[in-house]
Amino acid sequence: xxxxxxxxxxxxxxxxxxxxxxxxxxxxxxxxxxxxxxxxxxxxxxxxxxxxxxxxxxxxxxxxxxxxxxxxxxxxxxxxxxxxxxxxxxxxxxxxxxxxxxxxxxxxxxxxxxxxxxxxxxxxxxxxxxxxxxxxxxxxxxxxxxxxxxxxxxxxxxxxxxxxxxxxxxxxxxxxxxxxxxxxxxxxxxxxxxxxxxxxxxxxxxxxxxxxxxxxxxxxxxxxxxxxxxxxxxxxxxxxxxxxxxxxxxxxxxxxxxxxxxxxxxxxxxxxxxxxxxxxxxxxxxxxxxxxxxxxxxxxxxxxxxxxxxxxxxxxxxxxxxxxxxxxxxxxxxxxxxxxxxxxxxxxxxxxxxxxxxxxxxxxxxxxxxxxxxxxxxxxxxxxxxxxxxxxxxxxxxxxxxxxxxxxxxxxxxxxxxxxxxxxxxxxxxxxxxxxxxxxxxxxxxxxxxxxxxxxxxxxxxxxxxxxxxxxxxxxxxxxxxxxxxxxxxxxxxxxxxxxxx
Length: 502
What we know:
It contains 7 helices and 28 strands. The protein has helices at 2-27, 309-315, 330-335, 361-369, 379-386, 402-405, 483-497; strands at 48-50, 56-60, 69-75, 86-91, 97-101, 112-122, 125-126, 130-136, 148-149, 154-157, 178-179, 188-206, 218-226, 233-238, 245-265, 271-272, 274-279, 293-298, 319-324, 342-345, 374-377, 393-395, 412-415, 429-430, 437-439, 446-451, 455-460, 465-468. It folds into 3 domains: 48-139, Immunoglobulin-like; 148-279, Jelly Rolls (Sandwich); 293-497, Rossmann fold (3-Layer(aba) Sandwich), CATH 3.40.50.
């Protein structure tokens, strides 16, 4: 009898378990597919500075499958609980990127910080919100920064790896960095030696630029000054920092050494990709030749050009002077003893969100105000639009370098408006493409004159200014746009002979 009761109890026990499992399986719904939010790492990316009150909001599409709609909200409050927050609901606009211009009636306010978020809708399903933020500062690109970079002669780190990478300004894409050792060290010190006493008024610090991965961002840090590396005086303290890009303005100090003391950071190791120091002094006016010349503005981060642009122009019989973008301004241009008959703006190979964009304000001044003929190439072409609003250019979501990699995938460019700049060039021509950003919309005075799946060339309706996304200056066999630079320079010389420039 005892054995029978034991077996019966075991049977009832397992029966209860089976019934419980069955009941749970009936109540629990079938797991739903997770809808992914878009990525808000385009333009504006995290903490970008917008220079217009109605910027374009561009983001990378959700990777979820299906017909997608996006809900957008913009607010001055990070909790998005204000009644006057801006709302949009839009369809996906292209394969990789979706964008929405803030409507005129929703114009933002100057000198303010905004939060924005986007989520994906597929049918009745919704993703989580992806959230970012940006600043609005209309003055940040109006005038040249009137600062000059201070050359750092030596970097000394208390620990960590590759301190020299911090001042490696010719690093393509700004990818190299210094990294601290494991986090059980209390503090990390990095000393910058200028070689002599210099006046410092601004510091730019770039940490890990992966905005969706804040590992390495500096959280609490101090800046000190010294002339002997023995006695140090604190300049400023930054606490609870939550960004990867710091623009630190300080009361001008005179010092040979500046020490960055890192007290706390996010993640397992501190990371610094770049530090630039600025002096409150202007760059001098450069010497000009007696003969006619072309001014080449080097838009690479180190002030040079990505291609042999000056060499190409000189091969056509013209003299050139190359000046870094951060050393040029409208004031300097107007003070030249002999002005160039043409200006050519070069390309750039770093993402704009990772650059101190205030350095380009002098170039933007020239684009907006000078009557000297201008040709912008690649990034220079994008700057023609960005001079009137930073968000007018954005990442395409893919890189058009197929012509370099494979002759079978060369982009064909269609001329949409006949112009003397295209003389000797067939319609639907090919040219080298080395870029991943493009123009969303040109400035009001510019008209599109050539395109592929995006804007390839633009022309001002008021002045002799052209922009080309492709590289007419690169010497490869499939480049059918080679005559374009010569055509432009002939037009510029003709304009100059008529007194076209001031």
